[in-house]
Give the backbone structure.
Amino acid sequence: MSVLVGAHTRLLIQGLGREGAFHTARMIEYGTTVVGAAKPGKGGTVQDGLPLFNTVAQAVAATGANTSIIFVPAAGAADAILEALDAKIAVVVAITEGIAVHEMLTVTSMLERSASVLIGPNCPGLISPGTAKIGIMPAENFSKGPVGFVSRSGTLTYEIADLLTKAGLGQTTCIGIGGDPIIGLPTPDAVRYLNEDPETEVIVIVGEIGGSAEERAAEYMREFGKKPAVAFIAGRSAPAGKRMGHAGAIVSGNSGTAASKVAAFEAAGIPVATAPSEIPGLVKKALAGR
Amino acid sequence: MSVLVGAHTRLLIQGLGREGAFHTARMIEYGTTVVGAAKPGKGGTVQDGLPLFNTVAQAVAATGANTSIIFVPAAGAADAILEALDAKIAVVVAITEGIAVHEMLTVTSMLERSASVLIGPNCPGLISPGTAKIGIMPAENFSKGPVGFVSRSGTLTYEIADLLTKAGLGQTTCIGIGGDPIIGLPTPDAVRYLNEDPETEVIVIVGEIGGSAEERAAEYMREFGKKPAVAFIAGRSAPAGKRMGHAGAIVSGNSGTAASKVAAFEAAGIPVATAPSEIPGLVKKALAGR
Amino acid sequence: MKLHEFQAKQVLARAGVAIPEGRTATTPEEVEAAAIALGLPVVVKAQVHVGGRGKAGGVKLAKTAAEAKAHAMAILGMDIKGLTVRTIYVERAAKIAKELYLGITIDRDRRRAVVMLSTVGGMDIEEVAATQPGKIARSWPDPTLGLRAYAARALCFEAGVPEAQRDAVAGIARQLYDVFRATDAMTIEINPLFIQEDGTVVAGDAKLEVDDNAMYRQPELATYKEIAPDEEQEERAKALGFSYVQLDGTVGIIGNGAGLVMSTLDAVKNAGGSAANFLDVGGGAKESVVKAALEIVLANPRVKAIFINIFGGITRGDEVAKGILAVLRDTKPKVPLVIRLSGTEAEAGRALLEGAPLVSRTTMDEAAAEAVRLAT
Amino acid sequence: MKLHEFQAKQVLARAGVAIPEGRTATTPEEVEAAAIALGLPVVVKAQVHVGGRGKAGGVKLAKTAAEAKAHAMAILGMDIKGLTVRTIYVERAAKIAKELYLGITIDRDRRRAVVMLSTVGGMDIEEVAATQPGKIARSWPDPTLGLRAYAARALCFEAGVPEAQRDAVAGIARQLYDVFRATDAMTIEINPLFIQEDGTVVAGDAKLEVDDNAMYRQPELATYKEIAPDEEQEERAKALGFSYVQLDGTVGIIGNGAGLVMSTLDAVKNAGGSAANFLDVGGGAKESVVKAALEIVLANPRVKAIFINIFGGITRGDEVAKGILAVLRDTKPKVPLVIRLSGTEAEAGRALLEGAPLVSRTTMDEAAAEAVRLAT
């Protein structure tokens, strides 16, 4: 079984512009069931073989969509998420980068009142290798197998998936949760899904500086962990007070340091790689040591 | 068992002014467990033998209060309700009249996200005769027995309770839900509590013109009713467009008429009294006919 | 509390809603001058707190300034459903291509505001709801979230707003919702909302009714308060702390508690009579309040008998009796009084009334029957 | 984006927060005139986008106008942490009885704003948090509800605000929260919040930092944008579509994806070197972007070697190679380049780079080691 994404996924596209259309084609190619797109004003027409709808609610009613992916530009993206929540889309994946923080505060408040799961924003999406992908990741780096993988970074996810794949370590689900300070599915929640997934045998947790989601994930695994985990933290050498590309990747005062995260994982008995290249070895060791 | 109020009630007073103090004394007299009062700025002191607290949260922490009654004036009453919800008070009873409608919209939105029950505002409260009362009703008109009683009106509740009592028909719980257009526990929800209460053998539903809560209650009973019910609607002779004392008692256009409510009850097989004096007879008949 | 069209439009304009240029006037000369200043044609509109002014002749199109003045002479002083027109709003006439309806009110059942949009504009919305229910699109925004762009857009799609005006109408819906919240409105309406020939969207009319319970936090709107002649007695009663509604019958009613008073009205009707008023003295009424209440009821020339129905709770029977005795002593009413006292201190009250010129009954039904008999 | 104290105070004053009367000035003469106009004593304050200006001598009390002028002469042109003071804010001195701290920021873990109030005012709040954590009261309002009166009151009780100022401080907390939401603030602070000798409460200082991602809907605040000299390169990079942070080391870094670039910095450090910058070309960078990125890194005189680390996904290896070749052709860099190309079109890219004056490595670790070796 894969987590959050799989053969059951019926995907709706929110924002079928140039970028959205490009990635939609890749997702369909990969085998994802894409049922349509919401494009206000174009309802009733067809684009790239997909039926278009004026509203998400209409699209859900007509197609039974249970998942959506959002490519809407930043100024309208929070609204697109809220529309998806309102239409009771079960899994909402927001690719968009640059959503205002206060918009996201409103979104997460509504999210907490809903039964939906939000992945992102500012994320590459998620993939169940061999089955379906909801995102923009280059699929060729991923392969099917026992590793559950959660990451705050995009390209780093591809790099590590590639390393794992080349080492013969396929993945159940890879969840790119996004690099923003306020996201729908923070590390501990994503880890919980993988921990509860019977097919996942080992969890790889890729964090980065900023916030304390990794510390909370470590704490969760220390208490409830059913399987081994391996961690990696990007930004160990980053100075305090500087935002490292991601809006969320910043050490503020004493908070959000790599040292604190590494210490938390180690306290939970989770080995921490010092470079991505070490991850496959640690994963193999973890699988062997079960 | 009584509904929402009983021996388990640990009551906190919000707004221990002149009116609040008067009714608090009556409630204690009746046997209600009153554990303290929230009175900002007076925390740590004692009034009328009750410990005072600056905030509801502090009061809950110190006393284990699970219920509160609000006598705070209208301008601050919605805030007092929100404070009680925030402090996870299980049953909040708002006596205050004249709360702005938009404040109540905000309150009910928060209420729907909480596990709490709100009775009122603009209500006399509720009483479990012989056990406890949370409200301002004159207790001598009530007596213990098998009748569950819900009403939008205050004085009319006392009148009908008196009629029931004099006819030897005691009550499990009497819930005065309040006469405002936006209230915490509308008629159908109050009826549901009584319908689910094993000690209640018959339900008396006292409605009035305005809104369609009675229609929804009738619909609920038609579908889920486990016991007989008797109804009464005040305001049959009121003209359309005139607000009859209660903010919620108004026929707007074709909506909220007594005729519609009476028809709904009759369609659900619930006899409707044309005067309060008929209620005891109908209740006896209902009890006999079970 | 109701606002006039021109007041509501000012509030809307401040929130960014486009309105036609307009001016208020109180004389035909001012109307003429306004028509010239605004540019013709203009619409001359009576400002009264009542619907249906158009049908009553209170809204007229003028192609010339002289015509505007003539309309003003006809409209000023006009009686519309009992209200005298004292103010006129002169507005540059819109070039109407289409009329929409946009309004927000409180949905009691859902405990939400409901935003309604229809391409059937210019009609009474209740009529549209009754005859063409499918023509009204509705949205119920969560008050803690507001009317988001997607929801306003969905309304436009559902109502069938033309594509060229969709963004404008959705924007106005959001502005209207913000005004609705900010003004503690019970109802706000733009009906009709004009789509003009040039494609722009402007508010043709505006209706705004504010929650009386929120006036304490609407100090600016509170200054717009006007009491119509037929509301004066109700306002006076409110100031004295009780609620009063004038009705058409002959039996004056006084009681405590809205539900009990409504039931009292019903009891009078059951007995074959009709109530002259609704009067709830409220909880814990003292002698002075009862006295004032009785005086208001007595001032109604239609009243042929009075039924005082008190079920004592917080209200004490003896206080009620004292108030009645004070009136009997001071004003010697010419109509008969029927009283039914029950509950707290009822016996003490009845003892006080012993020998007074009034009829006492034990139950509501008996007392109602007696009052109806005396009024006939 | 940071606002100056005087700008933040204007925003606060408009929301109803009391502030001392003040004026901006850019010359000693203007400061002198402002001091006289405001009434003495005054505080003369450097307006720079950096903390710690007090300790740096940028804030001075003046008892006379001449003293104010003298302070202005000392402060104008002063260098505070690399920033030159060009504007002074002259403010009538408050009569301070007590100093509080009031601030709001984003709590990432709770995904809420956190309102903080402390009676330990005038100090850096992180220092208070570290040394006297019990002295900070916190509240996390639901963004869809706001900071209600009860919550603001509870904050005051918890912080131990004197009873006489409780309502005022609670009111300011609510106003501050509204400003926080309305301005899309990341952080807003009044530190110190003065309780004056007469019992009134005024904002002693004000700090407001706005979310860069929200500038599109903050047009007024956007006009306050100033770019400090040390931010110029980062701003230029942003305009070109990539993100750049200047660091202290000698190995210039270019990569795609923030996480990968951070890891590249770490790899350089693991290999014993240090990064000269963080540079993420973003997703799908074209030749021109890669070229511009390389030029920015080359412009840093500290750079002794450059490590280009690309894992192709949306970004294509051949586009990256073309950008590099363009720079090699046009500017002939004097420092060595190490490249590691992987993922989409990596082979095509490597083929294009065949024969070019640069070092190619297969893994991130190897490439990092080589770059560090070359930079040493």
Summary: DSSP finds nine helices and 14 strands in chain A. The first helix of chain A runs from residue 18 to 30.
